[in-house]
Structure prediction request, 303 residues.
Amino acid sequence: MPGMLDPQVRRALAERVRFYRELGIYDFYRRGVYVAEVAEGVPGESAVRSTATFQPELREEMPARNAAAFVVPAATEDNMLEMLAPKPEYGTTDPAEALKIIRADLGDCTRCKLHKQSRKQIVFGVRNPRAELMFVGEGPGADEDEKGEPFVGRAGQLLNNMIKAMGLQREQVYIANIVKCRPPGNRTPERDECETCSPFLMRQIAAIKPKVVVALGAVAAKNLLAINAPMSELRGRWYDFRPAGARSNDPSSDDRSWNGARLAVTYHPAFLLRDPRQKGEAWKDLQMVMRELGIPIPQKGVE
Ligand code: URA
Prediction:
């Protein structure tokens, strides 16, 4: 449907949707189809003039929150409408099934240039579809590209240690990345690549409904939060996080109620490999996460 809109209407609509989201209003339903004005006899105008507008109606208003800590993830004008469009996985309440549908929708993706650069395979995301805790990294490296699984190289070993230090196992969490294809030479993923890929990550998060999302490193944090700040400012606090396009609670259709996740930021394991002195700081971040999840905190930190 968004593809059928006049570019001006599309821009105005995206702007309006963004405005509602900033107010904490997420869900709309359409009454009727379009309210369209028929342009009669105006030279050069198509039969249906582009004053056609959706009539968004408020269905749910988010409770008032600490505005500074409430985050509306970044969405460009183009992907805002895409994110809000109904998704095929909405037909299921089973997160494993929903993830399969999202994976199928992603297909043999050629949406950004990474597909023709260094990618061997798409690295979608792994482990528990009903995880309470989800880790999001930056993008696959060589090992991940080879195996098709995130965080399986040296940084992955350290992430495993971090998970174990929390008293958990890799099988209990979900692990994904901002981009699903390996950037050439392990460079930082570029903005257009992140913007193209992140709607799929948002859908994964909305399907899994984790209690907590941990952004691993600045690239993950900045992309998830749409905040450009140094790690020193990003870490050590909670963000309320609700992926664009996530539907509000509907207990009649889903037994796992969810109004978004809490998001924390910590250092990327690859950074901790380069500067192990920061492991103590990362352990503080993980303890914050453990308190939130009600996990008892052991004395031993990350090794
Ligand atoms: N670094 C990441 O950010 N993700 C991976 O999957 C591996 C290394």
The longest strand covers residues 261-266.
